[in-house]
Amino acid sequence: MTTLAVKNKEADAYSVTVTEDTLTIELSDGRTISAPLAWYPRLQYATEEERNNWRLIGGGYGIHWSSIDEDISVSAVLSGLPSGESQPSFKKWLESRNR
């Protein structure tokens, strides 16, 4: 019996767009992936200026928003994983913004 071994190399991001309801990432291999902003509550509650203030980290393996202390990996978006932040942590962060 033969098996097919597939090397799974994740593509890296080179461009990010955040709208009022969607996170869209352009990948170096030509794909474009999107996820609902509801998966990332910090981005959902961020201002437009904060959403647009991102930088690539790890050579494009992740995206960082310093003003809202949010990091999202391309791998997580490709896997369909929403934010892993706990509700208590998010609530504390949201309360700190309202002060």
TrEMBL record:
Protein name per Swiss-Prot or TrEMBL: DUF2442 domain-containing protein
| InterPro entries from the UniProt entry | DUF2442 (IPR018841)
UniProt superkingdom: Bacteria
**Where does this protein come from, organism-wise?**
Desulfamplus magnetovallimortis
Q: Where is this region: Disordered?
A: 80-99
Q: Which Pfam families match?
A: DUF2442
